[in-house]
Specification:
alpha/beta; two-stranded antiparallel sheet; about 40% helix; globular
Length: about 280
């Protein structure tokens, strides 16, 4: 309840996460059928990079600002840069705001698609509601993320994606994640699930992956990016575990993440895209 993403908005993990989110929604858009996006940890939707919180950490300078200033980008990353600039309304000026996943997802919806935003923090949910007050395609829910996996699944339309992006303040977050994903998958086995996680120490992540694989859920893909050797203290890596990823997303992700790793860390950057559980 104390987590404030404003301190971290636009950092390396955000760019990694939003690049994958964009690719997933682009795949959903490729079919002429409506879809639903559910964001279980929505935050406030838009973050002021000139505000006190962002200026205290300056994490965006090593994240989104590097992407915005890069001279040559691959087509997917160029699309991400254009998407961020368009939502933030920068034109040709310097980026002063950064859109969270609710705004990224909403920008990519078509008529007929739906967005459900879940936020537990009482102040943040009010900000979120104000930002989407006149939007008939978006519903904001004040509730716990894991309760939302019970209450909102299966969605209408039945095609779609669940983004699960916890703050990892709780020591048992990976345990909660496994249980929540099992419950969600039981209710909606055909949905795409995108589960973000931080990488400080590989051991907790490996345990999470073993437990997730042991659930019997099929088609689990994992993507990771590290910017140096993990030391158990600093956030030097970020990952996304994907259930039911779109066809050939694994091949598409590898070069995109490789470009991001080079942009953020040069030769020290490393990526890995692998199947935890195949078909």
């Amino acid at each position: 309840m104390n987590y404030r993403h404003a301190y971290h908005a636009g950092n390396v993990a955000d760019v990694f996460k939003h690049a994958i989110l964009m690719l997933l929604i682009e795949h959903l858009r490729a079919k002429d059928k409506p879809f639903t996006v559910i964001d279980t940890h929505a935050g406030i939707g838009m973050y002021d990079l000139t505000g006190e919180e962002a200026q205290k950490t300056l994490e965006h300078e090593d994240g989104i600002m590097r992407l915005m200033a890069a001279p040559d980008l691959s087509p997917p990353l160029a699309r991400l840069r254009q998407l961020v600039a368009g939502i933030a309304g920068t034109g040709d000026g310097e980026l002063q705001r950064y859109p969270g996943s609710p705004r990224i997802a909403r920008q990519l919806l078509r008529a007929g698609d739906r967005l459900h935003l879940v936020e537990l923090h009482p102040d943040d949910v009010q900000t979120l509601r104000a930002g989407f007050a006149r939007d008939r395609q978006t519903v904001v829910h004040h509730m716990d993320a894991y309760e939302a996996l019970k209450a909102l699944l299966p969605p209408t339309p039945r095609r779609g994606l669940v983004l699960i992006d916890p703050p990892f303040e709780r020591s048992d977050e990976f345990t909660q994640l496994t249980a929540g994903i099992q419950e969600g998958y039981r209710r909606w086995a055909t949905g795409i699930y995108a589960i973000w996680y931080p990488l400080k120490d590989s051991a907790p992540v490996e345990r999470f992956h073993r437990r997730l694989a042991a659930t019997g859920i099929r088609r689990i893909l994992d993507a990771e990016m590290t910017l140096g050797e993990l030391d158990g203290e600093r956030l030097l890596g970020t990952g996304m575990t994907l259930i039911n990823p779109p066809w050939r997303l694994d091949a598409e992700l590898a070069p995109v993440l490789g470009d991001l790793a080079w942009l953020f860390a040069g030769r020290a950057g490393r990526t890995r895209v692998r199947w935890l559980v195949p078909e």
